[in-house]
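### Sample
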Amino acid sequence: MSRTIDYFHSKIVYSINMNDEVNKIIQSLNFPEIKESNATFMLDHFEAGTKVQERLLLNDYEVRLTKTNKEYLTLTFSNQNGMYRAKMWDNQGAIKQTLPLLEKHRVFDVSAVVDEYNQNKSLTINHLDPVQQAIEPFTLLPFPKLDLKEIAEELIFYLTTLNEPYKTLALETLRHFWDDFLLAPAAKGFHHNYIGGLIKHTTGLMRFTYFIQHHDKGPVEAILYLIAVVEKVYKHEVYAEAKKEKTERKRPVWKDTLDHLYKMLNQFVSLDQEAINFDVLYTSILYHDLGKLLEYDYAGKSYQAFDFLYPYADKQELDSRAQGGIEMDALGVMVGHIPYGAMLLQQMLNQLKTPLSLSHIHEINHCILCHHGLPEWGSAVRAPQTAEGYLIHLVDYFDSRYENEEMAYYRK
């Protein structure tokens, strides 16, 4: 069965074949039903000053100090429609009374007032009531009603095009981490910060890569074409914002991106690398954010990735965790998803006894470590050193920012 891919403002369009191999793999995988909630609450739909009462899932919280050294709470909550920032002032000892509830419970009936500052809306909490009865957590985790099976079919198609031993490595990796990989978010507060975000983002990078790989004029022309799309969209963004009142204007998604894209393209060209190893690139894409299985925590996540990396560690501390909304994992944040990605690759190579050359293993590791592009953006190396390294950064950059456009449209 043929499927048409239509992506990136309909500028990436091509057909792929969902053959028997893809269908057979899909049939072997588990796709849990994610129940839809009855929640209609979306913070952006309410005017500042509006009183709201909603049932929400607690993501995280922190006690902070004002400039006058008075305590207040910052919190984030979620439902299936998104994530919401909130604060609570320490009125009449409210923080001391509330903290024990936050440590014990994750679902709350929230009484609050909608606040707005610099066009960003949040909640000022008046009262929190913990919900005692059992609640299906997925009904309160952000989920933009993706067709996860359709996304998985596409992802598996790309992986089945790989040569051996990359194909076996990629497919066995997917099978091993499948239950968590399918549902994991790719972020807490930026792009793909919802259930299914990781598989959608990973597939998005492969879409850009497939387009670049099969462009009839080569990768440089393909990237120039994509940059031209960004420039056109950015012009529309600037024009649209200019027509709004000053207080209603928002930062364009593609602001300050063109110089970076051209800089990365110039450095990519300067390598003068004769050929691109797309087997290395696709495998690296699968692993580039796989470490987020350890970097984030959320209701319903297993700790299989910790078991995989540390099979002999005493993990009793994980049993007492109260999982809620999407938050940074207390352990995972100390390492981060980029080093974890390289660690997961090494463990899987050892487990499968994959006969890859030492140079190709280092090329995949390099792509994982450099995919953020710049050290100040979290890259674990100073700059990419291979064509594959530059390409994984570019496709990650394109997809993460395009996602912000798509989600802005979804929220409307």
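The domain at 43-139 is CATH 2.40.50.140 (OB fold (Dihydrolipoamide Acetyltransferase, E2P)). This sample (3'-5' exoribonuclease) is used throughout the tutorial notebook.
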